[in-house]
Amino acid sequence: MACLEGRNFTTKLYPRTVVIVFPRLRKSNQKLIPNRFFSRGGAGFKRVGMTIAKISLPSFTLLELAGEIDLHSSVSLKRELTACVEERAQVLLLDFRRVGYIDSSGLALLIEYLKMSSQFGGKLALFGLEKKVASLFALVRLDQLFIIAEDQDAALARLGVA
Fold first, then answer.
1. Under a CB-based contact definition with an 8 Å cutoff, are residues 155 and 147 in contact?
2. Could you tell me the residue ranges of all domains in the chain?
3. What pTM value is reported for the model?
4. What pairs with residue 12 in β-bridges?
5. Which of 30, 9, 27, 29 has its CA nearest to residue 19?
6. What confidence score (pLDDT) does residue 44 get?
7. In sequence order, which residues have a C-beta less than 8 Å from that of residue 110 and are 6 or more positions away?
8. How far is residue 154's CA from residue 25's CA, in Å, rounded to a whole number?
9. Using alpha carbons only, how large is the chain's radius of gyration in Å?
10. Interaxial angle between packed helices 104-118 and 74-86, expressed in degrees from 0 to 180 and rounded to the nearest 10
11. What is the pLDDT, as a whole number, of residue 48?
12. CA 91, 93, 96 angle in degrees (round to 5)?
């Protein structure tokens, strides 16, 4: 890790991520907090985030996820999962084909959704996990809790949805 300090900012270089900390104080504990996260790539830096596309079909709901699921981007995922609980989505599929990273806050959201959806008989399946993400699920043994499939058709088959 390298650290560069400027007049109004501090930059920390990690292997794949750059954190730029602007001197903004949090009122609760008066600490400097990072407010911009960028990832190195291509010709420069790009904002690391996550996009979610929701597709509701008669037999299931599909959330297509793209990007990195971390503490900062999990807010939008939580919003979508809460909406699925409120709609009482009987079958929810999460498309992980374009997710390259998930941290503990993202895993906690999925476990929370599984718990909330079990109250109304909802089912959840994940598919298209990259090797790195799949190995994380296996490491913490969440592959035994979640239905994880290679593709959408296999996920629907494992859930028993025609």
1. yes
2. 2-47, 50-159
3. 0.71
4. 3, 19
5. 9
6. 46
7. 81, 94, 124, 126, 142, 146
8. 48
9. 18
10. 0
11. 57
12. 170
Hey, what amino acid is at 89? Answer: A
Residue 97: its pLDDT value, please?
A: 97
The pair of three-digit structure tokens given for residue 57, joined into one six-digit string: 């079909």
Structure tokens at 122: 């909802």
CA distance 149 to 92: 13
* Mean pLDDT in consecutive groups of 10 residues from the start of the chain, 162 residues: 47 47 42 40 56 94 96 93 96 96 95 96 97 96 96 96 78
Count the residues in the chain: 162
**50-159, CATH topology level:** Transcription Regulator spoIIAA (3.30.750)
Report how far residue 43's alpha carbon sits from residue 65's, in angstroms, rounded to the nearest whole number.
Answer: 25
**DSSP annotation string for 48-115:** --EEEEEEE-SS-EEEEEEEEESTTTHHHHHHHHHHHHHTT-SEEEEEEEEEEEE-HHHHHHHHHHHH
What is the rounded distance in angstroms from the CA atom of residue 132 to the CA atom of residue 3? 28
Q: In what order do the strands lie in the sheet with 44-47?
A: 2-5, 10-13, 17-21, 36-41, 44-47
